[in-house]
């Protein structure tokens, strides 16, 4: 693998990991086009680590808030801002936070968010481990992956239509005040698990799942990427385990070369952060269905010609 190829793969990983277009699907297509059938597993492992760092950096304040809430929760310490914070049933949430913050209010809402993240992650883990055992990577065809692009597009369009109908509903807006419910968390985790299938976008299916369960689009986007942290971390651990089981020692890194590896990781981190920031702005405008205009033609062309 050359440095240029490493950069291209890193850019694709960074962009497609967060935009609702499927990073694994696009990497599979590019590997086929470049004839890179033996990409070292270490490269995939490090790209996942780079995108994980990007999402942690972007959401560092919210992650820190959740960690503080969790710390007070397990130690039994009171919320220092409880007296001045707006209660979950209050009407002036916008004055206490940024308007879509899932941590708006007292620690009670933060604890509900933590429980929701745990529930979503557990469901995703069960589905992800199940699909990894049932579906052998060696039998996943590029055409099946491209078909996944079309499925993602359909999910985005359907969820966008439903979300716009529910945009003014009290149920959708109440997520800002009451948090993600356990039932919503389970369904969103299920949809994130669907995103582990070939060619189906994790972010696209997760945001769609949140919108289908009547979570407003801003909270859906935020929650989707909060739960992406354990999901990406899990993928990183699984790939690292495969790498260790394969018996690939430090010499495996030399097979790809330090320069392509570093360049690919740097590109994945930088473009991952930029694509995440771009998508969060796009979510606020409610324009995710636009990606269907790319995914459907890409899927059809891939099925026909790859």
The total count of strands amounts to 0
Q: H/E element string?
A: HHHHHHHHHHHHHHH
How does the major sheet shape up? Answer: none
Number of helices: 15
Low-confidence stretches: 84-100, 248-254
Distance between the termini: 21 Å
Nearest-integer average pLDDT: 82
**Structural class of the helices, strands and pairings?**
mainly alpha
Strand content: under 5%
Please explain how this structure is put together:
- With 306 residues, the protein is mainly alpha-helical.
- The protein starts with a helix and ends with a helix.
- The chain is globular and about 55 Å long.
- Helix content is 73%, strand content 0%.
- It has helices at 3-18, 23-34, 41-58, 60-75, 107-134, 142-165, 170-173, 175-178, 182-194, 202-212, 217-226, 228-245, 251-256, 258-285, 292-305.
- It has 15 helices and no strands.
SSE blueprint and pairings:
Elements: H1 3-18, H2 23-34, H3 41-58, H4 60-75, H5 107-134, H6 142-165, H7 170-173, H8 175-178, H9 182-194, H10 202-212, H11 217-226, H12 228-245, H13 251-256, H14 258-285, H15 292-305
Helix pairs in contact: 1-2, 1-3, 1-14, 2-6, 3-12, 3-14, 4-5, 5-9, 6-10, 6-15, 9-10, 10-11, 11-14
Would you kindly provide a brief summary of this structure?
The chain has helices at residues 3-18, 23-34, 41-58, 60-75, 107-134, 142-165, 170-173, 175-178, 182-194, 202-212, 217-226, 228-245, 251-256, 258-285, 292-305.
